[in-house]
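Troubleshooting entry. Yesterday's outputs looked truncated, so today I'm pasting the complete records for two proteins to confirm everything comes through intact. If either block looks cut off, that's the bug. Protein one:
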Amino acid sequence: MAALSESGRGIPPLYSEIAMKVNNAKDKPRKLKVLKDHDSIALRQVLKAAFDPKIEWALPKGEVPYTVNDAPMGTDHTILSQEAKRLYLFIKGGENLKQTKREMLFVQMLEGLSAEEAEFLVAVVNKKINNKYKGFTANLVKEAFNWDDNFMKNNICSRFVLILKPLYFNKR
């Protein structure tokens, strides 16, 4: 898939490829650069779900019994950057589904992804990205995307508004 995206076909890199680039980067500045270079809303959604302790997956922990999609790379696969919008189905408080339906949909999603992307998604759901990809930590992600400890945009101006707004309105 990397060869396809580098050949000018406009295919975004797989998140598993981004994770391997982070893993292979020699130091923190290079790891940050990898994340910043591939920044997207979908990547942020996936990484927030991977690291934010307030986000709980409504799926069993551990290995997932699914059939690996062994179609040649670049042919019959979905990609996680497009599937990210459906991840709410698998998060507690997301869609109200029967557990068997939720698990079946998750297995179908994994079976549509390439083997590497499916493996990456299982690591995300198990919140074990750092175990599989060296140096891929919550602190790295927070720094790359300028997030605070709540995995929200760290914006000083909005904090001032929150502090000053009650003072302003209470004086009237």
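Protein two, checking that the full record survives here as well:
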Amino acid sequence: MGKRPKYGNRKVTFKGETFDSARERDRYIYLLEQEGRGNIMSLRRQVTYELVPEITESVEVRLKTKTKTVVKVVQRAVTYRCDFEYMRCSDGATVVEDVKICPTLIPKEYVIKEKLFRWRFGFPIRRVYSATESVEGTDDNKGNGNDKKDDKKGKESAFDPRTARARAKV
């Protein structure tokens, strides 16, 4: 018997393509509809991005009659594979999406890769929690689970005498 998936998802097949979860398949169906309506174009699945290139070094190997220089891979490249990539027709922006269960179940490795992606390519990965989330909108952390944290930070930094008094009493 095979290993049970970490989050309990089951692989599903649609039109000969295998998806990691039913939610990812449903998102693909929604994106196909959006592509048909002309809202997005160039929809691709499982696109791999190189976040950190591989590290190589030249090593001289002594053979019987000569010395040969060989390039050896010291560390493999760090890559990220997105669920979907497409271009929004409204503004021409490239969108990279990853379908997630909920904002609280995000592995730390994913968060690191998400930050490396934004640093390397200059735009964020869009986290999608619902199959029918709109393809329109801004990319500045929308759907990345950072919205609530940013709002909370902004509220705490603004001075409000009512909350200041309440904090002082506690």
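Both blocks look complete. Sanity check on protein two: The domain at 12-47+82-145 is CATH 3.40.1350 (Trna Endonuclease; Chain: A, domain 1).
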